[in-house]
Amino acid sequence: MRSVVVVFLVAIFALAYAEDELPLAEPCDADLCKAPDCRCSSQDIPGNLEPRNTPQFVLLTFDDAITELNTQTYRSIIYRRTNANKCPIGVTFFMHHEYTDYIMVNELYNQGFEIALHSISHRIPQDFWRYASYEELMREIGDQKQQIAFFANIPANTIHGVRSPFLQMSGNNTFKMMQSAGITYDSSWPTTRFTDPGMWPYTLDFESTQDCVVGPCPTASIPGPWVIPMITWTDLGGFPCSMVDACFHTPDTEDEWFQFFFKNFQKHYFGNRAPFGFYIHEAFIRPRPHVWRAIERFLDVLNNINDVFMVNANEVIDWVKNPIPVNEYVKKDCRRTTPAACRPTICPGLFSADTEKRYYMRVCSRCPRSYPWVNNPLGL
Question: Cα-flanking dihedrals φ and ψ of residue 217, to 5°?
């Protein structure tokens, strides 16, 4: 009986140690948390700028696999666009691995767009991600950084961000993984409370005040990673939606969609200029020509407003670290991308023992021996 009690107490102490492994975050102290490495969760504009002096950043992002088919949409909608300052626009692609065409990833990178992480498997059920351990996240997301760099032949140090599948974070484990994998920012965390005015990006050195819409959310002090809050839109029924294609009450016509986009944008532009997120899946656009046309019209308007800038997510973090007023921002040199070569290689009939499927894969490197997957990201 005594040995059973001892074992029980050991288990309790082990559990307590695991829970205390990371220190619980304390309320933010603005005197200790200063740019460029720390920022309290807040609706305050970085640098104490007035809204009229603050660049209005627009974050257009696409999720999931990058294929030859959806790249045709991207070529039509976003290629050759410039902001009013004549610099090329920025767009961020949160890509998962399965069915991705890495030749197209290389093309998007060479167009100056940002490639970011969305896991290797994007597996279901959603609860896998809710309870994923640090080790599982490192295999799913940390290893994906190496995988993309190898097969698309792009520099690993240009891959900065992550969006969790289904926007399902794993609490502290998500940000511990980011810390270890050298990932700069997360864009998975919706807020329905801090939308008007919106919440600006912040770090997790101290306690977050953001509402936890899809738990578990982080509770520990985890210096390093940044959070880009996904400021929700309001649909036509007054309900919040984290992504455009997740809105329930939506318009019918092209003009109504255009007005819907603009109304949600104005909340930011005439507010505290928190970054405006236009988060969407390409598969929602392609079969809806009226939505496609409304998006193009909306982007045309944004690209002609002098203090509005479509940028990638990492550029927003760079600005928050070192905020400058819009009259200085417009004078900055445009973002430049060093071209990444691609030796197109077609790899048919690659078998995956994990999914029990065969895959057709296009890469900018040599073909793997088997279909790359979790625990074997390079298919060795």
Answer: -105, 160
